[in-house]
Amino acid sequence: xxxxxxxxxxxxxASGGGGAGxxxxxxxxxxxxxxxxxxxxxxxAEHAGLNAVITLCPEQALxxxxxxxxxxxxxxxxxxxxxxxxxxxxxxxGSRIYAEHVxxxxxxxxxxxxxxGAVVIGxxxxxxFAWGVTxxxxxxxxxxxxxHPGKTVGGSSSGSxxxxxxxxxxxxxxxxxxxxIRMPSACCETVGFKPTLGRIPxxxxxxxxxxxxxxxxxxxxxxxxxxxxxxxxxEPVPEPRLAGLTVGVLTRAPRVGPTDEENPLDERAWAWAxxxxxxxxxxxxxxxxxxxxLHAAKELTGTVGCTKV
Length: 309
Prior knowledge:
By secondary structure, the chain is of the alpha/beta class. The protein has helices at about 30-45, 60-65, 110-115, 160-165, 180-190, 220-235, 265-280, 290-300, and strands at about 55, 75-80, 120-125, 170-175, 190, 215-220, 245, 280-285.
């Protein structure tokens, strides 16, 4: 049974095959891909209480999954933020004004995902017209956080992050003007990436602030995000690289409100710092206490060659 109760946390979704979380059960045949799409549609129904999805298109999705597909995302079920046009599928932009709007042409970013074999199963909820950073929507209901019930999902790509976190799909498309991919991903413990401005075409995406608007992926893993970025930009998947990079580590939660008290140091941050240092990244401690914690993390992980700068 799925989780229809938005007050109960949804277990973290598995990453899926190949480490990218974008393998439709390893399916090569149309029926296998159709089963992957059916599983995503069933998961969307089971988690309907999250309000992550505004519109599903099961007939179109299953017909496409059973047809000939090829590409790095062949048969992978995806959800699209309802700010992007989808041909033949209702696109509301999160507003009641466009409640019955059905575009004739899909946004360029959607076309690129489909050209790579992805199967669009529906459209995700968002703050109306993407004009906000919360998960509230007066027309289609607020999105609930599947990982941290009772806490915000963030916005405006709230439904995309919640759907990936709940395991409905391994990949969703979002948009980011001032944090609208990054904030929901942080709140829902997914991986969201805001690419460089202009790297992914925005034709067919409802504009908020064209000089800042960007399209980008939300996935379960960094590898999945990198693959989706490659599809959306037409560039090769970047090789992982930390050597020579300087990595800043947030060692304590920032102070909120009028207080002079600092939050305690979080030792988990230095576990990640030690892992980065093992890849010869440069970690920049700010204090003697932080340098001591980094040294302990280095000893624990067996890293060598960490540069303190």
